[in-house]
Amino acid sequence: MLCCMPGVAFVPALLVSWSSAAFIISYVIAVLAGHVEPLVPYISDTGTKPPESGVFGFMINISALLAAITMYIRYLLTEKQNETSHFVRSSCNMFTLCIGLMGCTGMGIVATFQELAVPSVHDIGALVAFGSGVVYITLQSIISYKSCPRWNTYFVCHIRMAISVISCIAFIPMIVFASKISMTKVDWTPGEKDYTYHFMSAICEWMVAFGFIFFFLTFIRDFQRFSLRISTEIHED
After folding, report:
1. Is the dihedral of CA 26, 31, 35, 37 positive or negative?
2. How many angstroms separate the CA atoms of 42 and 116, rounded?
């Protein structure tokens, strides 16, 4: 199915499907192994202990790579559209790409440094990933509005902005509640100390994560009309 998509639409489609599978597979393995409670664990909790830690690390690193490729193609697409429409400054487009790549780097840190092994590094990576991600999709929503009506419909722009707003709203309590948790653990049970903070923060984390997934889903239509061509030149002496 991915191969039948025109242009480079298969790239965000692959990112969305792969990332969704990464979250779901690691969650299922962790729950079946009894390493986490089924009721809303942190995403990182589902990739902390073997065997799910290997699956989580591998798949999230691939997701980070796919996200970086998607963001770069989005940058090239905007630059190409901007040649005729001049709806955004090139420096703004580049800044948005850099913010997005910072988020991808944060994802790589989260996947490489497990929550219980190196908690401080893991938490910094998560903060960079989610914080940069929220800023990236917000900037992309603004750029989308600027490209209307020639390159985007207002309906798509409204959808992107709604996802951005929801993600921003969820990101703030995610950080606030997480900062109130006084211990680092994965096997949470209802009723224990700080469980409410953990539960609320985890809900917000899943909302932000799937907000990113749904946002990149809206790129598929745009990528259908964009193709990458690699040209080679042979110079004779």
Report:
1. positive
2. 13
For tokens 């840190």, name the residue. Answer: 109
Q: How far apart are CA 34 and CA 64, in angstroms?
A: 27
The vertex-85 CA angle with 81 and 89, nearest 5°, equals 80
Percent of residues, the chain, with pLDDT higher than 70: 93
Question: Per-residue confidence at 192, pLDDT binned at 50, 70, 90?
Answer: confident
Q: What is the pLDDT of residue 234?
A: 40
8 A C-beta contact, residue 107 and residue 60: yes
Q: Which has the closest alpha carbon to 64: 11, 106, 25, 92? A: 106
What integer pLDDT is reported at residue 16 of this predicted model? Answer: 97
Structure tokens at 178: 């997480």
- Give the H or E element holding residue 102: helix 90-112
Asked if residue 147 lies in contact with residue 81, where contact means CB atoms within 8 angstroms, the answer is: yes
The pTM for the full model equals 0.92
CA distance 52 to 5: 32
- Angle, helices 52-85 vs 119-146, to 10°: value is 30
Per the CB < 8 A criterion, the answer to whether 147 and 80 are in contact is no
24 phi and psi angles, rounded to 5 deg: -70, -45
DSSP, res 40: -
- pLDDT confidence of residue 198: 94
